[in-house]
Amino acid sequence: MNKLINFIKESYTEMTDNVTWLSFKEAQDSSVLVLVASVVFALVIGAVDFGFNEILTAFYTAY
């Protein structure tokens, strides 16, 4: 039980004293960047998927 209590105390100290937290503005900027990158990535993957679908449909209907 002492190990668990010691672990919790050390974890709390680590989180409050040693971790450098982002400011709200930095976190917001990072979130917007991740959102934009995700949308761009999804659009690229969607375009590739659409292209492959069209190519395979044309190929299989031609024969």
Shape: elongated
Q: What is the element string, with H for helices and E for strands?
A: HH
Largest beta-sheet details: none
| Helix fraction bin | over 70%
Q: Helix/strand-derived class?
A: mainly alpha
Radius of gyration: 25 Å
**Number of helical segments with 4 or more residues:** 2
Could you list the spans in which at least 5 consecutive residues all have pLDDT below 50?
none
Cα-to-Cα separation, first versus last residue: 73 Å
Mean pLDDT: 95
Strand content: under 5%
Number of separate strands: 0
Give an overview in words:
There is one protein chain. This protein is mostly helical. It has a domain at about 20-63. Helices cover about 90% and strands about 0% of the residues. Pfam families: SecE. Essential subunit of the Sec protein translocation channel SecYEG. Clamps together the 2 halves of SecY. May contact the channel plug during translocation. Keywords: Cell membrane, Membrane, Protein transport, Translocation, Transmembrane, Transmembrane helix, Transport.
